[in-house]
Write a structure and sequence with these properties.
By secondary structure, the chain is an all-alpha fold. It has two domains: 99 residues, no CATH class; 113 residues, Alpha Horseshoe (Serine Threonine Protein Phosphatase 5, Tetratricopeptide repeat). It has 14 helices and two strands, in the order H-H-H-H-H-H-H-H-H-H-E-E-H-H-H-H. Helix 8 crosses helix 9. It comes from Lolium multiflorum. This is Binding protein.
């Protein structure tokens, strides 16, 4: 009898321990979910503030060409944008978008309390945190505003980081560097790849540059055609479509992208291509 009672007590204790353990695990899971929910809500609130600040800057950019740079009517919009970006950083200190836009405000806009040193520090922080827009902006500023060799190397480093994330402006700039041979060995194939990827993202300047190179007879690099290849329905073998396409048609497609992006140069090139259809000898002169 005593043995049976002991077994019942042991079983009850084991059940209690199991229940306590399950309750503890459930509590840990609930705590983790609550923490994740809190992080999500915090990030969402920060991004809402970034969007508000960005919208205010868009309104400033819309009218700034028709107003004086120091026009007092712009101050409320600029101050509101700055406050929203600062609040976003207070809520989420890891928000690189807020850092980058706040840095741009210190550099570009006549906002009360603007300081280029603060802007530079914010830009470096955002770039080192991996924001592609900040990396591109910092690379451009290091390249333009400093004449030191070390500064050029740093600029190229940040531009390459932005290119790794396929930032269209950085792709276009790196393409121009490869095309001119500035700081690197001249490489037309690499330049065309950069222009091609930037054009895919709607960069008008890259589309014009890529189309111009095609008109001059530059061959489409294999690294591009390899990803645009298809299979023959009859043989099942891979065939490279772009290699068989007319360079004139490929160039026209690029100028169309530029024109749709609001680039006047793209429209002018489309007009010239219409003239080349009537006078093919002029196109041959360009390709020579």
């Amino acid at each position: 009898m005593f043995a049976a009672s002991a077994r019942r007590v042991a079983a009850a204790a084991a059940a209690a321990n199991s229940s306590s353990s399950s309750s503890g695990r459930a509590s840990q899971i609930a705590s983790a979910l609550n923490h994740q929910r809190w992080i999500h809500d915090r990030n969402k609130k920060a991004m809402e503030l970034v969007v508000k600040g960005w919208s205010a800057l868009q309104e400033v950019d819309r009218v700034i060409d028709f107003a004086d740079r120091n026009d007092k009517r712009l101050i409320p919009l600029l101050r509101g944008a700055k406050e929203n970006f600062e609040l976003a950083l207070e809520i989420d200190n890891m928000n690189t978008h807020a850092r980058c836009w706040l840095a741009k405000m210190h550099f570009k806009y006549h906002v009360p309390g603007a300081c280029k040193a603060v802007g530079a520090a914010l830009l470096v922080e955002a770039a080192n945190m991996g924001d592609p827009e900040a990396q591109y902006e910092l690379g451009c500023r290091l390249r333009i505003e400093n004449d030191h060799v070390q500064s050029d190397q740093q600029a190229f480093h940040y531009i390459e980081k932005a290119v790794d994330q396929l930032h269209p402006g950085a792709l276009y700039l790196l393409g121009a560097v490869y095309l001119t041979g500035d700081c690197v060995k001249r490489d037309i194939a690499s330049a065309m790849w950069c222009f091609h990827r930037a054009s895919e993202k709607g960069h008008a300047g890259a589309a014009v540059a890529y189309g111009s190179l095609l008109l001059k007879g530059a061959e489409v690099p294999e690294v591009i055609t390899r990803f645009n290849s298809g299979k023959s329905p009859s043989t099942g073998k891979v065939r490279k479509k772009d290699m068989q396409q007319d360079p004139l048609k490929l160039a026209k497609d690029q100028f169309q992208i530029a024109a749709e992006g609001g680039c006047d140069l793209g429209l002018r090139w489309l007009k010239r291509l219409e003239d080349y259809d009537k006078h093919p000898e002029e196109l041959k002169q360009i390709q020579q």
